Amino acid sequence: xxxxxxxxxxxxxxxxxxxxxxxxxxxxxxxxxxxxxxxxxxxxxxxxxxxxxxxxxxxxxxxxxxxxxxxxxxxxxxxxxxxxxxxxxxxxxxxxxxxxxxxxxxxxxxxxxxxxxxxxxxxxxxxxxxxxxxxxxxxxxxxxxxxxxxxxxxxxxxxxxxxxxxxxxxxxxxxxxxxxxxxxxxxxxxxxxxxxxxxxxxxxxxxxxxxxxxxxxxxxxxxxxxxxxxxxxxxxxxxxxxxxxxxxxxxxxxxxxxxxxxxxxxxxxxxxxxxxxxxxxxxxxxxxxxxxxxxxxxxxxxxxxxxxxxxxxxxxxxxxxxxxxxxxxxxxxxxxxxxxxxxxxxxxxxxxxxxxxxxxxxxxxxxxxxxxxxxxxxxxxxxxxxxxxxxxxxxxxxxxxxxxxxxxxxxxxxxxxxxxxxxxxxxxxxxxxxxxxxxxxxxxxxxxxxxxxxxxxxxxxxxxxxxxxxxxxxxxxxxxxxxxxxxxxxxxxxxxxxxxxxxxxxxxxxxxxxxxxxxxxxxxxxxxxxxxxxxxxxxxxxxxxxxxxxxxxxxxxxxxxxxxxxxxxxxxxxxxxxxxxxxxxxxxxxxxxxxxxxxxxxxxxxxxxxxxxxxxxxxxxxxxxxxxxxxxxxxxxxxxxxxxxxxxxxxxxxxxxxxxxxxxxxxxxxxxxxxxxxxxxxxxxxxxxxxxxxxxxxxxxxxxxxxxxxxxxxxxxxxxxxxxxxxxxxxxxxxxxxxxxxxxxxxxxxxxxxxxxxxxxxxxxxxxxxxxxxxxxxxxxxxxxxxxxxxxxxxxxxxxxxxxxxxxxxxxxxxxxxxxxxxxxx
Length: 826
Description:
It is built from 23 helices and 23 strands.
């Protein structure tokens, strides 16, 4: 609920009343209510509603730095404030010697545990949040007291019999008496004297004593003591004579148990009272932390920043927005608001409903939020001074009951402001006036307004006022202390844009707005003829200025968009070029690695063959075979080594580009392989070639006419085995064409995407296809699972457009069904 604004008729000279009214006119209490909503404890909410407005620059800086620290911490994690209640009353009672009950003692224990958790959490983050850790450090470590209180109660909240064995004995004795009394009553009521006397067959308790329901007419039988009567009078509750003694013993047992429980509770309460000072200090620190955290949460909700705090009374904030409008979720137009340097007064003009008053209130709220340590809804880099007082005259203060007209109400408010400035001093005070000196003859009002503004500046104030008076708009031309600003209005649509423009006065657009609202045209035409020539010229000049400013802003916006688009395109091109270079480098490394792996594998296989042959005749032939394979391995390494040196097996000479066409084969010296040309040389002399299903960029100088053999577009070339050993070479040769559903799915030819996000999975598929193409595989599989089928559909869409893929389809039942996609490579 919004707080009620103080009456405008407060006694003149009461600075406190004037400041309260000024805060209410700026909706400061409403902002504090939003702040309190973000606190997590009762005491934290109290602190928020009473947020102090610091007056010292050092204190304001510290509060803003604290808020910045909180926002940085809250962006990463939450701070554990749960479980902390306003236990001041309980602690105070314990200090005075009162006995707290079990629920109250457990509440104290919960607070102690929560305080310990909060302190430990912040102290472990002291490097990131030194100010918060400094507040939490004095919180007392009363873990022994918390443990004592917890151990004293069981899970039902009753005093624990395991901790206090005497309670177990007393409770057991009481339970035995209950059982004995119940048994004895059952025996008694079965006796002959009770025949027909019972109203019902049950036992109950009246006044801590066991009784049975007896018919009213049977009470004369003198069967026991009557303790109660039913509402109808038909039943009396009688304590049988036979259990009177047992009931007496039960009352004594119950009293003894309660006395022992009270003694224990009194002891625990006394222990809590002995730690009352430390407890209250810890609760106070928690309230301070809650207040700081609430300010940080509000700053995050406002998308706020902390300003640079200076001693000079000034304010300069870019992209500033009214905080209450932001919290309402409105799309608020951000504006740069500045005041105090180099001009100490801003004359804010423009049409009604254009946002002048909202701008004025935003200015005041930014000044107050800075002093309260609340982040500002503005861009980074705001600079705000500490204004010792913020005094306002905003809104219509007329009152029929107090015999105040609009003009009289404004004059009274101004009188209070001047009185306060005389009594307290005006140096650095921020004065905000809405429609100064309005409500009287315009000429006299303009003269009075001009005199008032100059008098306020003479007293050291910094001020902003809204106005329609042309005489006040002209002050900036004759007095360097004044500057104009206007809220913009679209002359074509006759609607406000809510943009604030500094340096120019604004038109009121009174006649235009009246025309838009449907006032008769002949009336408006007559009004335009009655406007004085000088005022017409001024309005025309202002209109031209606004049009020029709008055109300049539109051109600047177009230029900024074009520049941003060009920069974005340049970034995309640079990123694409970087990706291609990286892809080329990676593929080259992959080709080299695979050649080296194959050389190593062939060498090991030949050594195995040689070992077999060494155990048989033909040793010399085996050694010669090993020599041939080693020589072949050396040739492969030379082809994949650094530098562009051609392979010994590569043909000499360079390509004749005048006779070369896209698709022709060419020998790539740096790879030692024959490829197909995918593009002609670019201005830098680089050419794109297709090798093993991969597209690479190489220097045109590396290409030579191909040897007689056909280009290998599927798999890296392996060294040939010597004659006589070919039949014992590696089993994996160029794969034959296989039907997709007949192919054997194995871990080595399957990519498992389960558990990955779509974007990660598509990157993995691209890399997998690169590797499969380089390895010369014919068929591979992609395991994506079922799930929501989003991953499956994304993978199949990618395969549909991949240059590596000849065809793909859901795998067969033996291969995994629709959870797997089978892929045949080109």
